[in-house]
Amino acid sequence: MKVVVLGDGSREHTITILLSRSCISPKIYVLSSYRNPGLKKAAEDSGGQLFRCNILSPSEVKGIVDELSPDLIIIGPEEPQFHGVVDTLVDGGYAVFGATRKLAEIEKSKVFMRDLMWRFKIPGRLAFKAFTDVNEAMEYIENAGDVVIKPARQAGGKGVKVIADLQAYLSDIKSEIRREYAKKLISDVMTHYTDIDYKLLIEERVDGVEYTLMTITDGHTVLPLPLVQDHPHAFDNDLGPETGGMGSIQGPGYILPFINQQEYQESIEIIKSTLKALQTVVNDRYVGVLSGQMMLTPIWGPTVIEFYSRFGDPEVVNLLHVLDTDFLDIVEAAVSRKLASIKLKVRDDLVTVAKVVSPKGYPNNRRVAKGHPISVDEGLIRSNGCEVLYAGVELGSDGNLYTTGSRIATILCSGSNYKVVSDVANKCAELIKCIDGWDTFYRSDIGSESLVSERMRLAEAVRDVYTYRRKNNLVSIKVDWIPGRGATIYDYR
Ligand SMILES: Nc1ncnc2c1ncn2[C@@H]1O[C@H](COP(=O)(O)OP(=O)(O)O)[C@@H](O)[C@H]1O
Ligand SMILES: [Mg+2]
Asked: Of 425, 426, 396, 390, which is closest to residue 408 (Cα–Cα)?
């Protein structure tokens, strides 16, 4: 059996390893924009090959796929979906695991997503306003209060600004900051995109604990995976700029220490309702991954921040140590609409911690972070029971590994409790270095006792509020009161 995996990073490296464990032993072919050493090895070990190509070009991808004539194609990242790669492959008669362009709108356009949630009254929705006109946006922003400003399109983690507005004496300054920021978003981020009309999304700000629910679907059955928590900030204690993700934790079992079984079930229901609504408006069948980036908030409990039309990276890495079902069986079942026949087995005796090692300069100054030779002591990392998933690393023509300016690699560790696992992951993260002395960094606090218990305390406080609101029929009403300016009432009915 031949399987093509499209993509470049540690998410795709994880997928290739999961595939290589299958009892079917497929030949794995990777289509990737650079020579990631992990992907290259996984492909070659299986008898397959890595091809470099422009993964956003439907015709270039189809050209290689036609030569290979694979039985199955797995799409890793979202951008090829947005560019119509899946549509072209499906039209060509291939079995593809990944959302078509119209379905992937659920991730690409945060405006489409919010609108869908309101039209179908899906729980966990937030008040929002979308703008195509800059001047109109500026006028609205003037008195917007406690909001988040986002680029209207998925921009790879660039550009979301959360501006709390709780102190009246800072209101004028904050209005100014909001206006400046909105202008910058339009000129710096949104000019790169011509595939969406909306420019800005302004949305009510919420507080709480974030988590990710990834699910696999065949358009009918939804197979929920264990919850994972991502850590998007660059530095310890959630400081620094937002990144593509600096690490994630999972377990034990399907839930997290700070998200309970009922909240997990409610999050699954949100994904199921969204899938149904999406397929209704788009009139297409969803085959692939639909993930919710969620937040447990005082207003709703489980609330949607955004959807992904793919696995999270590095969220999916955590699956490697706990998934006990043949991954290829799951994907094949999804593609052939038989997902209901899959019984997912997940180890519930383990917790997993994934930590990303990045070069200094990432994420805001990738130019200086690029081109550094690196060494990875894979042997020692493995002897600690951990795994290395390569991300922004290129195998040079001289045989050395070089940084591409993005995240270098993800270390995955597992064990019986978070503290021990996090400590081992820290030790392993030190085994990835730039040979030329350029600094690397990782988050030592991911999975630490203090961070996990802080999330538990916060979740408990949030839980108290939303359960009170539910008991007293207040879920549909939210009042924001800004001193000096009065109240804004949101009604969710
Ligand atoms: N409505 C909101 N209220 C509070 N924080 C938010 C809100 N929306 C986004 N955020 C914060 O900003 C981060 C990035 O926003 P998100 O919509 O996920 O955009 P991106 O595409 O950059 O990942 C979220 O992980 C969350 O921490
Ligand atoms: Mg996000």
From this structure: 390
Tens digit of each residue's pLDDT (9 = 90 or more) over 257-285: 999 999 999 999 999 999 999 999 999 99
- Ligand 2 center to 446 CA (angstroms): 18
Q: How many helices (H) and strands (E) does the chain have?
A: 15, 27
Which residues of the chain are modeled with pLDDT < 70? Answer: 157-159, 163-173, 482-483, 485
- CB under 8 A, 24+ apart: contacts of 485-489: 485/143, 485/145, 485/168, 485/171, 488/145
Lookup result for tokens 């090692």 = 357
Nearest atom within ligand 1 for CA of residue 159: 22
For 150-195, write each residue's pLDDT tens digit. Answer: 888 887 766 677 766 655 556 666 777 777 777 777 777 777 777 7
Dihedral angle computed from the Cα positions of residues 272, 277, 280 and 284, in that order, rounded to the nearest 10 degrees: -60
Q: Any residues with Cβ below 6 Å from ligand 1, and which?
A: 126, 148, 150, 154, 157, 160, 162, 203, 205-206, 210, 232, 242, 293, 305-306
Domains of the chain (ranges; CATH) run: 2-100 (3.40.50.20), 127-204 (3.30.1490.20), 209-441 (3.30.470.20)
Q: Which of 432, 439, 440 is nearest to 37 (CA)?
A: 432
Global confidence as pTM? 0.94
